[in-house]
Design goal:
By secondary structure, the chain is mostly helical. 68% of the residues lie in helices and 0% in strands. The protein contains 14 helices and no strands. It has helices at residues 15-19, 27-41, 51-72, 75-94, 104-111, 116-130, 135-156, 173-178, 182-203, 207-220, 225-237, 241-254, 259-279, 289-293. α2 (27-41) packs antiparallel against α3 (51-72) and α6 runs antiparallel to α7 (135-156). The termini are far apart. This is DnaJ domain-containing protein. Residues 163-187, 274-299 are annotated as: Disordered. Residues 14-93 form the J domain.
Length: 299
């Protein structure tokens, strides 16, 4: 089973691409995805398929999927593999010609690194959903995901200079002087990555995982107003009003004009006014604070 695309071209087995997982995946995510794939590749799932398709499914499981799980499913081998992946990212810096992208998705990601984590996760999820649906396309999709991973690494490690780009004029000295220092840019990029992943979970209405993502962000960046405000938003959507208020308060302490926090505060205030009016009126079936806060459907 030869794959000659993306990170595979750098003499590394892209286990993340095999499982259709992001390069930031943790062991719990790995196990969940592994179980999904094994169900798809199980012989019972291909009872009406041809013998060649059954054989291919069996080979994919034994030669690619199982080894990927053995590597990424435990902390120590995962850490070692991630170090190797980072080294390959550095190799892309020294040998930009090795970043040969043919996939439209990878090319698009490499061409526009704005909102990098969100775009990467969005495209990756689309590819991984189709990854093992048609056996004849499985290897090609693994290759496309590996190209996406290579492009993501290049952008993440500030390797955009290794990719063709139009010439730019020198920035005025005043603009250069006002540019944020590298440490601050890295800090902002990390926070953006957490928030974009939380948005993905919010879109899928998986509020618990979105909350977990932002709690990890706050553990690393405890004074980030955007992380606190977005966490307050997800807590509200999950029906946890008390926790929402706690993180709303924290966000406003760090940035009184944070747009999400300001919006949530106004909704709280409006809801409190409605509750005060309702308390003086006969009770109505189905009324409630959280019902109207985010426009929930009436029962």
């Amino acid at each position: 089973m030869n794959i000659d695309q993306g990170l595979f071209k750098l003499e590394i087995i892209d286990h993340h691409a095999v499982l259709g997982l992001p390069l930031t995946a943790q062991p719990k995510q790995v196990r969940k995805r592994y179980l999904e794939i094994t169900r798809k590749l199980h012989p019972d799932s291909w009872s009406g398929a041809s013998e060649s398709q059954k054989q291919q499914a069996s080979e994919l499981l034994s030669k690619l999927v199982n080894p990927a799980y053995e590597t990424l499913g435990k902390e120590k081998p995962l850490t070692e593999h991630n170090i190797l992946v980072r080294m390959k990212g550095q190799q892309l810096s020294c040998q930009p010609a090795s970043l040969l992208l043919t996939s439209p998705a990878a090319k698009a990601l490499a061409a526009d690194s704005s909102n990098l984590d969100y775009n990467y996760m969005t495209v990756l999820q689309k590819l991984s959903k189709r990854q093992y649906e048609i056996m004849e396309q499985a290897l090609e999709l693994i290759g496309q995901i590996s190209q996406l991973n290579a492009a993501y690494l290049a952008c993440k490690d500030n390797l955009e200079s290794a990719l063709p780009k139009p010439p730019t004029t020198a920035e005025p000295e005043a603009e250069q002087a006002s540019a944020p220092p590298p440490q601050r840019r890295h800090h902002e990029t990390m926070i953006e990555g957490y928030i974009n992943r939380a948005k993905e979970f919010e879109y899928k209405r998986d509020f618990d995982r979105g909350i977990l993502e932002l709690r990890q962000a706050i553990a690393a960046h405890p004074q980030s107003a955007p992380c606190h405000s977005y966490l307050a938003k997800l807590y509200l959507k999950a029906g946890q009003e008390t926790m929402a208020k706690i993180h709303l308060k924290r966000s406003l302490e760090f940035n009184a004009s944070d747009p999400i926090a300001t919006e949530i505060r106004e909704r709280f205030q409006a809801a409190e006014k409605r509750a005060a009016r309702v308390s003086t009126e006969p009770s109505k079936k189905g009324s409630g604070f959280l019902n109207g806060l985010f426009g929930g459907k009436k029962q």
